[in-house]
Task: structure prediction
Amino acid sequence: MAYALQQLINGLTLGAMYGLIAIGYTMVYGIIGMINFAHGDIFMVSAFIAVTAFTLLAAAEVTSIPLALTFVLIVAIFFTSAYGWAVERTAYRPLRGSTRLAPLISAIGMSIFLQNAVQLTQGARVKPIPPVIEGGLQLWSTPEFTVQIGWNQLLIIVTTVVLMIAFTWMITQTPFGRQQRACEQDRTMAALLGVNVDRTISLTFMLGAALAAVAGVMVTVYYGVVDFFIGFLAGIKAFTAAVLGGIGSLPGAMLGGLLIGLIESFWSAYLWTEYKDVATFGILCLVLMLRPTGLLGRPEVEKV
Amino acid sequence: MSTVVFAHHAMTPAERLRDAGWIAFVALILGIPLIGLTTVDAGGRLAVETRFGLLAAAVAVAFGGRLALRWAIDHLKQRRLARRRAAGNTGANRALAVVNMLGWLALGASVALPIVFSDNRYVIDTATTVLIYVMLGWGLNVVVGLAGLLDLGYVAFYAVGAYAYALLSTQFGWGFWQALPVAGALAAAFGILLGYPILRLRGDYLAIVTLGFGEIIRIVLVNWTEFSGGPNGISSIPRPSFFGLEFTRSAPEGGQNFAGFFGLEFSPMHRLIFLYYLILVLALLTHVFVSRLRKLPVGRAWEALREDEIACQAMGMNTTHIKLSAFAIGAMLGGFAGVFFAARQGFISPESFTFTESAIILAIVVLGGMGSQMGVVLAAALLVLIPEFGRNFAEYRMLLFGLAMVLIMVWRPGGLLAHREPTLRLSAAGTTGKEAAQ
Result:
């Protein structure tokens, strides 16, 4: 029981991170109907930026954790959203109005490019940083097992919840949110009514990248190691989460993220760890087969 | 910003400078965290190292490159415009004739190659690698280029073929020729197995599920050690023989080896040349097979499906069967290539069947021009040969791959040799079908 509770906590942490990345997929899919294949790599770039920023802070002998986290988050969000913007500008915008396959393939190319650019400029070795936040809260102690929630796990879950609330508010209440939803519904009509479609799409990519940046910083804090390959798997899992929840739906992405995190955590704890990725992919196939629109998704209307 | 980018013709020098300056600024922002700063090991901890010289160089390259690119684009546009005004649009047929000529030339060259370079092991090996990729590209071309189904897990079928031959030959003592059809059928079965449940999915979903399928196969191969040998792979896979004649130094008990039968002096080159011709024949058979299929109803159905799935359904076509046949045939061809790969290497491991490999094969199909058989040859040769020419270049290979995929998509969304015309169409007289897009 205690063991299961611990897995629940671990799963929630993992799920929160997947959820943050998944929102990037969902928003981009909502607005341009494409899967941004390079999104996982944007997340990876952010993790590398976080490592560099943490190392810089360590060299400057900053010891205040809140200060350090704020600094790293700002730096990571700034640079990562620049990457999000650049990806949209080079791989998607020139191909708007082209066939469906073309932007998808240029996005795969972009993903390969980013992965190798990071590998070449930052090295292929795993980058470890010293633990940023240590310790945790003991929730429940039985003679054989202690359930504990780490401060870093708490930080991840709280940050995610706060961001989700802020995001939902932004999409439903602000002018930008209105424009974004207008572009989702009908891009031509939105443009006719004076919405700057290009700008809205760019901003959407930047926002998705900003959330991926937060996830990247969190991963660095949580695991303490980063390498150039983490974007691929995290990207696929976050994408699975987005599809599971119903792509295009923000709460769906979060729900899907949590489900994937929990499934992965419990699968590794009770079944075979080495097959945990097979489980994720298997679930993806099953969900798409049985319910192609996901759990909270709207049925897709095909326009002829 | 957008007005500056789209004003192609009347761009003043000041505008050009501003445009390039903006690009340089973006390059600076993007470059700071990855190029300008890096972390290095310093006694067990990380330390930050600055590379501002490199960053400055990158920004300068971006600035200069943008100026040159803009200039080149503007000039090309104007020239193309002038040419279009001067002449009517007769280029397509001439280009087609050139491509056909090129095809025959390439065929002649590939038949003559081992005779000319009969002593050069390196050339034969590289040419064999090119042909493996050509075959894989032709196989994937059926799925992606003709049927328009984006498959990111194609390497899974390659792996199925390779492991089928490896296991059949090492465990049950099957020969190459016995195993070839069985492995091909097995790969086709996997294609149907994968294809059936996901037929309803469209473009991106399909892509990601096939990617997942490829990864599942790879993870299983890595972890199911008693079946596949795990990460160590399977070694000492027997080599194919020439109608029962082995390419060994000494003749087997009560039989003859290849060199002995033809009264030649033993040379390890015999096997390499044999393998080269073997893959050439397999590839040519693939080509003939696929070109024939394209003219049959099933091939035409693939192309129709690629162009408009809803219209196909409205016409009463069974899209399920059409997609499944594309998947199965593509997978079978991938399986054949896998068998050859295992027989040539004599050793296989899951290392050879990663997503990167799928991406390379896809890149070949896409760069060549989806649906173009000659384009695949061109792209396969390019992608294998470029890194071979400059060894130092090799570590940038994947980087340039990625870049090339983006740039070619942006430049020509259809690929290098894409006409995107149907294989069959009514001629002007309206009586006979005529072969068009090669």
Notes: Confidence is low (pLDDT under 50) at residues 1-8, 429-438 of chain B. Residues 52-86 of chain B form the longest helix (35 residues). Residues 20 and 67 of chain B are 6 Å apart (CA to CA).
